[in-house]
Amino acid sequence: MRKTKVSNAVIRRMPRYYRHLTELQTAGVARISSNALGKAMGFTASQIRQDLSCFGEFGQRGYGYSVEKLRDEVADILGMNEGHTAVIFGVGNLGRALIGNFNFGKNGVRLLAAFDVDPRIVGTELAGVPILHPDSARAFLTENHVDIGVITVPKGNARDVGRLLVDCGVRGIWNFANVELDLDTSGNTVVENVHFADSLLALSYMISEE
Amino acid sequence: MRKTKVSNAVIRRMPRYYRHLTELQTAGVARISSNALGKAMGFTASQIRQDLSCFGEFGQRGYGYSVEKLRDEVADILGMNEGHTAVIFGVGNLGRALIGNFNFGKNGVRLLAAFDVDPRIVGTELAGVPILHPDSARAFLTENHVDIGVITVPKGNARDVGRLLVDCGVRGIWNFANVELDLDTSGNTVVENVHFADSLLALSYMISEE
Q1: How far out from the chain centre does Cα B198 lie?
Q2: Which span out of A39-43, A50-54, A173-177 was modeled with the highest average pLDDT?
Q3: Considering B4, B10, B47, B61, which has the largest number of Cβ atoms within 10 A of its Cβ?
Q4: In this complex, do B15 and A202 lie within 8 Å of one another by their Cβ atoms?
Q5: How many CB atoms within 10 Å of residue A200?
Protein backbone atom coordinates (compact mmCIF):
# COMPACT_ATOMS: atom_id res chain seq x y z
CA MET A 1 0.00 0.00 0.00
CA ARG A 2 1.76 3.15 -1.15
CA LYS A 3 0.93 6.45 0.38
CA THR A 4 3.57 8.67 -1.11
CA LYS A 5 1.34 10.67 -3.39
CA VAL A 6 -1.92 10.69 -1.49
CA SER A 7 -3.22 14.25 -1.22
CA ASN A 8 -4.47 15.79 1.97
CA ALA A 9 -7.97 16.03 0.48
CA VAL A 10 -8.06 12.26 -0.10
CA ILE A 11 -6.75 11.58 3.42
CA ARG A 12 -9.54 13.76 4.82
CA ARG A 13 -12.15 11.82 2.87
CA MET A 14 -11.02 8.38 4.04
CA PRO A 15 -12.54 8.64 7.54
CA ARG A 16 -15.82 9.66 5.92
CA TYR A 17 -15.71 6.55 3.74
CA TYR A 18 -15.15 4.53 6.88
CA ARG A 19 -18.06 6.21 8.62
CA HIS A 20 -20.46 5.70 5.75
CA LEU A 21 -19.40 2.11 5.15
CA THR A 22 -19.94 1.38 8.85
CA GLU A 23 -23.44 2.82 8.61
CA LEU A 24 -24.16 0.73 5.51
CA GLN A 25 -22.88 -2.39 7.23
CA THR A 26 -25.00 -1.67 10.30
CA ALA A 27 -27.99 -1.25 8.00
CA GLY A 28 -27.29 -4.70 6.57
CA VAL A 29 -26.12 -3.58 3.12
CA ALA A 30 -23.76 -6.21 1.70
CA ARG A 31 -22.59 -4.51 -1.46
CA ILE A 32 -22.82 -1.14 -3.09
CA SER A 33 -21.94 0.45 -6.41
CA SER A 34 -19.61 3.43 -6.56
CA ASN A 35 -22.61 5.36 -7.89
CA ALA A 36 -24.75 4.58 -4.85
CA LEU A 37 -21.88 5.13 -2.41
CA GLY A 38 -21.16 8.42 -4.12
CA LYS A 39 -24.77 9.52 -3.88
CA ALA A 40 -24.88 8.70 -0.16
CA MET A 41 -21.72 10.71 0.46
CA GLY A 42 -22.26 13.57 -1.95
CA PHE A 43 -19.39 12.64 -4.27
CA THR A 44 -19.37 11.45 -7.86
CA ALA A 45 -18.72 7.80 -8.58
CA SER A 46 -15.52 8.68 -10.40
CA GLN A 47 -14.29 10.65 -7.39
CA ILE A 48 -14.75 7.56 -5.27
CA ARG A 49 -12.98 5.28 -7.72
CA GLN A 50 -10.16 7.78 -7.99
CA ASP A 51 -9.81 8.18 -4.20
CA LEU A 52 -9.67 4.45 -3.59
CA SER A 53 -7.28 3.86 -6.48
CA CYS A 54 -4.63 5.66 -4.41
CA PHE A 55 -4.49 2.59 -2.21
CA GLY A 56 -4.95 -0.34 -4.56
CA GLU A 57 -7.73 -2.10 -6.39
CA PHE A 58 -11.08 -2.43 -4.69
CA GLY A 59 -14.42 -3.55 -6.01
CA GLN A 60 -15.25 -5.23 -9.25
CA ARG A 61 -16.68 -3.76 -12.42
CA GLY A 62 -20.38 -4.60 -12.59
CA TYR A 63 -20.45 -5.85 -9.01
CA GLY A 64 -19.46 -2.84 -6.99
CA TYR A 65 -17.89 -3.02 -3.58
CA SER A 66 -18.38 -5.53 -0.81
CA VAL A 67 -19.28 -3.17 2.04
CA GLU A 68 -17.62 -5.29 4.72
CA LYS A 69 -14.46 -5.87 2.74
CA LEU A 70 -14.07 -2.26 1.70
CA ARG A 71 -14.73 -1.10 5.26
CA ASP A 72 -12.01 -3.45 6.52
CA GLU A 73 -9.59 -2.20 3.87
CA VAL A 74 -10.30 1.44 4.71
CA ALA A 75 -9.83 0.68 8.42
CA ASP A 76 -6.48 -0.84 7.56
CA ILE A 77 -5.47 2.15 5.43
CA LEU A 78 -6.39 4.44 8.32
CA GLY A 79 -4.07 2.56 10.67
CA MET A 80 -6.93 1.33 12.82
CA ASN A 81 -5.40 -2.13 13.10
CA GLU A 82 -2.00 -0.98 14.32
CA GLY A 83 -2.92 -0.90 17.99
CA HIS A 84 -2.29 2.81 18.43
CA THR A 85 -2.12 4.03 22.00
CA ALA A 86 -2.90 7.47 23.40
CA VAL A 87 -2.73 9.62 26.51
CA ILE A 88 -4.68 12.78 27.17
CA PHE A 89 -3.48 15.94 28.91
CA GLY A 90 -6.20 17.95 30.65
CA VAL A 91 -9.26 16.50 32.38
CA GLY A 92 -11.43 19.60 32.25
CA ASN A 93 -14.82 19.63 30.55
CA LEU A 94 -13.49 18.80 27.12
CA GLY A 95 -11.09 16.16 28.43
CA ARG A 96 -13.95 14.56 30.35
CA ALA A 97 -16.16 14.65 27.27
CA LEU A 98 -13.52 12.84 25.22
CA ILE A 99 -12.63 10.29 27.92
CA GLY A 100 -16.23 9.61 28.84
CA ASN A 101 -18.13 9.94 25.60
CA PHE A 102 -15.75 9.61 22.68
CA ASN A 103 -15.11 6.03 21.81
CA PHE A 104 -11.36 5.83 21.27
CA GLY A 105 -11.51 2.04 21.07
CA LYS A 106 -13.95 2.15 18.17
CA ASN A 107 -11.31 4.08 16.28
CA GLY A 108 -8.60 1.57 17.02
CA VAL A 109 -6.96 3.69 19.70
CA ARG A 110 -6.36 2.57 23.29
CA LEU A 111 -6.42 5.41 25.82
CA LEU A 112 -3.80 4.50 28.44
CA ALA A 113 -3.85 7.43 30.85
CA ALA A 114 -4.97 10.99 31.49
CA PHE A 115 -2.92 13.73 33.12
CA ASP A 116 -4.23 16.59 35.20
CA VAL A 117 -2.91 18.75 38.04
CA ASP A 118 -6.17 18.77 40.02
CA PRO A 119 -5.35 16.95 43.31
CA ARG A 120 -9.02 15.98 43.73
CA ILE A 121 -8.91 13.70 40.70
CA VAL A 122 -5.26 12.59 40.53
CA GLY A 123 -5.15 8.94 41.50
CA THR A 124 -8.76 8.29 40.46
CA GLU A 125 -10.12 6.75 37.28
CA LEU A 126 -12.53 8.13 34.71
CA ALA A 127 -14.28 5.59 32.49
CA GLY A 128 -11.52 3.14 33.39
CA VAL A 129 -8.72 5.53 32.49
CA PRO A 130 -6.29 6.35 35.33
CA ILE A 131 -5.74 10.04 36.02
CA LEU A 132 -2.12 10.82 36.85
CA HIS A 133 -0.20 13.93 37.81
CA PRO A 134 1.70 15.57 34.91
CA ASP A 135 4.89 15.24 36.98
CA SER A 136 4.83 11.57 36.15
CA ALA A 137 4.13 12.13 32.44
CA ARG A 138 7.71 11.98 31.22
CA ALA A 139 8.34 8.71 33.02
CA PHE A 140 5.06 7.30 31.73
CA LEU A 141 5.85 8.28 28.14
CA THR A 142 9.29 6.75 28.43
CA GLU A 143 8.11 3.48 29.93
CA ASN A 144 5.06 3.05 27.69
CA HIS A 145 4.76 3.13 23.95
CA VAL A 146 2.44 6.05 23.25
CA ASP A 147 1.51 6.95 19.67
CA ILE A 148 -0.85 9.85 20.23
CA GLY A 149 -0.99 12.70 22.73
CA VAL A 150 -4.33 14.46 23.07
CA ILE A 151 -4.10 18.06 24.29
CA THR A 152 -7.13 19.45 26.11
CA VAL A 153 -5.29 21.70 28.57
CA PRO A 154 -5.82 25.48 28.61
CA LYS A 155 -4.11 27.42 25.82
CA GLY A 156 -1.33 28.67 28.07
CA ASN A 157 -0.14 25.15 28.88
CA ALA A 158 -0.53 23.59 25.46
CA ARG A 159 2.94 24.36 24.14
CA ASP A 160 4.69 22.85 27.15
CA VAL A 161 2.66 19.68 26.72
CA GLY A 162 3.42 19.67 23.00
CA ARG A 163 7.14 20.00 23.64
CA LEU A 164 7.08 17.16 26.16
CA LEU A 165 5.28 14.91 23.67
CA VAL A 166 7.80 15.68 20.91
CA ASP A 167 10.66 15.20 23.38
CA CYS A 168 9.38 11.78 24.29
CA GLY A 169 9.00 10.74 20.66
CA VAL A 170 5.20 10.71 20.50
CA ARG A 171 4.37 10.71 16.80
CA GLY A 172 0.89 12.18 16.74
CA ILE A 173 -0.58 15.16 18.57
CA TRP A 174 -4.35 15.72 18.59
CA ASN A 175 -4.56 19.34 19.65
CA PHE A 176 -7.81 20.85 20.94
CA ALA A 177 -6.16 23.83 22.62
CA ASN A 178 -6.96 26.18 19.73
CA VAL A 179 -3.41 27.50 19.58
CA GLU A 180 -0.61 26.76 17.13
CA LEU A 181 1.92 24.66 19.01
CA ASP A 182 4.94 25.93 17.04
CA LEU A 183 6.89 22.77 17.70
CA ASP A 184 10.26 21.85 16.33
CA THR A 185 9.13 18.43 15.25
CA SER A 186 11.77 17.88 12.55
CA GLY A 187 9.05 16.14 10.62
CA ASN A 188 8.68 13.29 13.09
CA THR A 189 5.58 14.45 14.89
CA VAL A 190 2.31 15.16 13.15
CA VAL A 191 -0.02 17.72 14.72
CA GLU A 192 -3.75 17.52 14.02
CA ASN A 193 -5.41 20.71 15.19
CA VAL A 194 -9.11 20.72 15.96
CA HIS A 195 -10.60 24.17 15.46
CA PHE A 196 -14.23 24.29 16.50
CA ALA A 197 -14.45 27.83 15.15
CA ASP A 198 -13.72 26.68 11.59
CA SER A 199 -16.78 24.49 11.71
CA LEU A 200 -19.03 27.14 13.29
CA LEU A 201 -17.91 29.79 10.81
CA ALA A 202 -18.59 27.51 7.84
CA LEU A 203 -22.11 27.08 9.24
CA SER A 204 -22.37 30.81 9.82
CA TYR A 205 -21.49 31.38 6.16
CA MET A 206 -24.06 28.87 4.98
CA ILE A 207 -26.93 30.46 6.90
CA SER A 208 -25.98 34.03 6.02
CA GLU A 209 -27.91 36.24 3.66
CA GLU A 210 -26.71 36.02 0.09
CA MET B 1 -21.22 39.50 -2.92
CA ARG B 2 -22.30 36.46 -4.91
CA LYS B 3 -22.12 33.05 -3.38
CA THR B 4 -23.96 30.99 -5.91
CA LYS B 5 -21.01 29.12 -7.31
CA VAL B 6 -18.72 28.92 -4.29
CA SER B 7 -17.58 25.33 -3.77
CA ASN B 8 -17.64 23.59 -0.44
CA ALA B 9 -13.83 23.41 -0.47
CA VAL B 10 -13.59 27.19 -0.73
CA ILE B 11 -16.16 27.66 2.04
CA ARG B 12 -14.11 25.36 4.27
CA ARG B 13 -10.99 27.39 3.63
CA MET B 14 -12.53 30.76 4.48
CA PRO B 15 -12.48 30.25 8.27
CA ARG B 16 -8.82 29.29 7.98
CA TYR B 17 -8.11 32.55 6.16
CA TYR B 18 -9.88 34.36 8.95
CA ARG B 19 -7.85 32.52 11.57
CA HIS B 20 -4.52 33.21 9.89
CA LEU B 21 -5.32 36.84 9.16
CA THR B 22 -6.27 37.30 12.82
CA GLU B 23 -2.92 35.86 13.85
CA LEU B 24 -1.09 38.13 11.43
CA GLN B 25 -2.98 41.16 12.72
CA THR B 26 -2.23 40.21 16.32
CA ALA B 27 1.43 39.89 15.33
CA GLY B 28 1.30 43.45 13.97
CA VAL B 29 1.58 42.57 10.27
CA ALA B 30 -0.08 45.33 8.21
CA ARG B 31 0.09 43.85 4.74
CA ILE B 32 0.97 40.57 3.13
CA SER B 33 1.48 39.22 -0.37
CA SER B 34 -0.57 36.29 -1.61
CA ASN B 35 2.74 34.41 -1.79
CA ALA B 36 3.52 34.96 1.87
CA LEU B 37 -0.06 34.29 2.97
CA GLY B 38 -0.02 31.12 0.91
CA LYS B 39 3.24 29.97 2.45
CA ALA B 40 1.87 30.55 5.97
CA MET B 41 -1.25 28.54 5.19
CA GLY B 42 0.23 25.82 3.01
CA PHE B 43 -1.53 26.94 -0.19
CA THR B 44 -0.18 28.37 -3.41
CA ALA B 45 -0.53 32.09 -4.10
CA SER B 46 -2.76 31.35 -7.07
CA GLN B 47 -5.04 29.21 -4.91
CA ILE B 48 -5.49 32.14 -2.57
CA ARG B 49 -6.18 34.61 -5.38
CA GLN B 50 -8.65 32.15 -6.88
CA ASP B 51 -10.44 31.52 -3.55
CA LEU B 52 -10.84 35.20 -2.80
CA SER B 53 -11.95 36.01 -6.34
CA CYS B 54 -15.17 34.11 -5.58
CA PHE B 55 -16.19 37.04 -3.40
CA GLY B 56 -14.89 40.10 -5.19
CA GLU B 57 -11.63 41.94 -5.69
CA PHE B 58 -9.22 42.12 -2.82
CA GLY B 59 -5.65 43.28 -2.65
CA GLN B 60 -3.63 45.17 -5.18
CA ARG B 61 -1.09 43.90 -7.64
CA GLY B 62 2.38 44.67 -6.31
CA TYR B 63 1.05 45.71 -2.92
CA GLY B 64 -0.60 42.58 -1.63
CA TYR B 65 -3.41 42.55 0.89
CA SER B 66 -4.06 44.87 3.78
CA VAL B 67 -4.30 42.33 6.61
CA GLU B 68 -6.88 44.28 8.57
CA LYS B 69 -9.04 45.03 5.56
CA LEU B 70 -8.95 41.50 4.22
CA ARG B 71 -9.71 40.10 7.66
CA ASP B 72 -12.74 42.39 7.91
CA GLU B 73 -13.90 41.36 4.47
CA VAL B 74 -13.55 37.66 5.28
CA ALA B 75 -15.42 38.17 8.56
CA ASP B 76 -18.19 39.79 6.57
CA ILE B 77 -18.25 36.96 4.03
CA LEU B 78 -18.50 34.46 6.89
CA GLY B 79 -21.57 36.22 8.26
CA MET B 80 -19.78 37.26 11.44
CA ASN B 81 -21.36 40.72 11.32
CA GLU B 82 -24.94 39.54 11.04
CA GLY B 83 -25.52 39.20 14.77
CA HIS B 84 -26.22 35.48 14.68
CA THR B 85 -27.74 34.03 17.83
CA ALA B 86 -27.54 30.49 19.17
CA VAL B 87 -28.87 28.15 21.82
CA ILE B 88 -27.28 24.92 22.99
CA PHE B 89 -29.03 21.67 23.92
CA GLY B 90 -27.18 19.50 26.42
CA VAL B 91 -25.05 20.80 29.30
CA GLY B 92 -22.96 17.69 29.84
CA ASN B 93 -19.18 17.74 29.59
CA LEU B 94 -19.08 18.81 25.97
CA GLY B 95 -21.83 21.38 26.43
CA ARG B 96 -19.98 22.81 29.39
CA ALA B 97 -16.74 22.90 27.43
CA LEU B 98 -18.40 24.87 24.64
CA ILE B 99 -20.30 27.24 26.93
CA GLY B 100 -17.36 27.83 29.25
CA ASN B 101 -14.33 27.68 26.97
CA PHE B 102 -15.40 28.23 23.40
CA ASN B 103 -15.69 31.87 22.58
CA PHE B 104 -18.94 32.16 20.63
CA GLY B 105 -18.76 35.93 20.74
CA LYS B 106 -15.38 36.00 19.03
CA ASN B 107 -17.06 34.22 16.14
CA GLY B 108 -19.88 36.72 15.91
CA VAL B 109 -22.41 34.46 17.61
CA ARG B 110 -24.36 35.35 20.75
CA LEU B 111 -25.27 32.35 22.91
CA LEU B 112 -28.71 33.11 24.34
CA ALA B 113 -29.55 30.04 26.40
CA ALA B 114 -28.72 26.44 27.19
CA PHE B 115 -31.22 23.61 27.70
CA ASP B 116 -30.78 20.60 29.95
CA VAL B 117 -33.07 18.27 31.88
CA ASP B 118 -30.85 18.09 34.98
CA PRO B 119 -32.90 19.70 37.80
CA ARG B 120 -29.71 20.58 39.67
CA ILE B 121 -28.65 23.06 36.99
CA VAL B 122 -31.97 24.22 35.49
CA GLY B 123 -32.48 27.82 36.57
CA THR B 124 -28.78 28.49 37.08
CA GLU B 125 -26.29 30.20 34.79
CA LEU B 126 -23.06 28.97 33.27
CA ALA B 127 -20.63 31.63 32.08
CA GLY B 128 -23.53 34.05 31.99
CA VAL B 129 -25.74 31.76 29.92
CA PRO B 130 -29.08 30.79 31.54
CA ILE B 131 -29.78 27.07 31.72
CA LEU B 132 -33.44 26.29 31.01
CA HIS B 133 -35.52 23.12 30.94
CA PRO B 134 -36.14 21.70 27.44
CA ASP B 135 -39.88 21.93 28.12
CA SER B 136 -39.55 25.66 27.60
CA ALA B 137 -37.46 25.33 24.45
CA ARG B 138 -40.29 25.60 21.94
CA ALA B 139 -41.62 28.76 23.56
CA PHE B 140 -38.10 30.20 23.75
CA LEU B 141 -37.43 29.47 20.07
CA THR B 142 -40.73 31.04 19.10
CA GLU B 143 -40.26 34.17 21.15
CA ASN B 144 -36.59 34.72 20.32
CA HIS B 145 -34.86 34.89 16.99
CA VAL B 146 -32.40 32.00 17.06
CA ASP B 147 -30.15 31.31 14.07
CA ILE B 148 -28.15 28.35 15.31
CA GLY B 149 -28.96 25.34 17.48
CA VAL B 150 -25.99 23.53 18.97
CA ILE B 151 -26.63 19.85 19.76
CA THR B 152 -24.52 18.29 22.51
CA VAL B 153 -27.14 15.92 23.92
CA PRO B 154 -26.61 12.14 23.92
CA LYS B 155 -27.08 10.41 20.57
CA GLY B 156 -30.50 9.04 21.47
CA ASN B 157 -31.96 12.53 21.98
CA ALA B 158 -30.29 14.29 19.10
CA ARG B 159 -32.97 13.66 16.48
CA ASP B 160 -35.77 14.99 18.68
CA VAL B 161 -33.78 18.16 19.27
CA GLY B 162 -33.02 18.42 15.57
CA ARG B 163 -36.71 18.10 14.68
CA LEU B 164 -37.66 20.75 17.20
CA LEU B 165 -35.07 23.14 15.76
CA VAL B 166 -36.31 22.58 12.20
CA ASP B 167 -39.91 22.95 13.39
CA CYS B 168 -39.13 26.29 14.94
CA GLY B 169 -37.38 27.54 11.82
CA VAL B 170 -33.82 27.55 13.17
CA ARG B 171 -31.61 27.81 10.09
CA GLY B 172 -28.36 26.28 11.27
CA ILE B 173 -27.67 23.17 13.34
CA TRP B 174 -24.23 22.57 14.78
CA ASN B 175 -24.38 18.89 15.61
CA PHE B 176 -21.87 17.25 17.96
CA ALA B 177 -23.99 14.18 18.66
CA ASN B 178 -22.11 12.00 16.16
CA VAL B 179 -25.29 10.75 14.55
CA GLU B 180 -26.95 11.70 11.28
CA LEU B 181 -30.04 13.69 12.15
CA ASP B 182 -32.05 12.58 9.08
CA LEU B 183 -34.13 15.72 9.15
CA ASP B 184 -36.72 16.77 6.64
CA THR B 185 -35.31 20.24 6.31
CA SER B 186 -36.68 21.00 2.84
CA GLY B 187 -33.45 22.83 2.23
CA ASN B 188 -34.13 25.51 4.82
CA THR B 189 -31.95 24.21 7.61
CA VAL B 190 -28.23 23.57 7.24
CA VAL B 191 -26.66 20.88 9.41
CA GLU B 192 -22.97 21.07 10.24
CA ASN B 193 -21.85 17.79 11.76
CA VAL B 194 -18.73 17.68 13.90
CA HIS B 195 -17.14 14.26 13.80
CA PHE B 196 -14.18 14.02 16.16
CA ALA B 197 -13.41 10.57 14.79
CA ASP B 198 -12.72 11.95 11.30
CA SER B 199 -9.97 14.09 12.74
CA LEU B 200 -8.49 11.32 14.90
CA LEU B 201 -8.51 8.86 12.00
CA ALA B 202 -6.75 11.31 9.69
CA LEU B 203 -4.07 11.61 12.38
CA SER B 204 -4.00 7.83 12.76
CA TYR B 205 -3.40 7.55 9.01
CA MET B 206 -0.59 10.07 9.09
CA ILE B 207 1.33 8.32 11.86
CA SER B 208 0.84 4.84 10.45
CA GLU B 209 3.55 2.75 8.87
CA GLU B 210 3.78 3.17 5.13
Answers
A1: 17
A2: A173-177
A3: B10
A4: yes
A5: 27
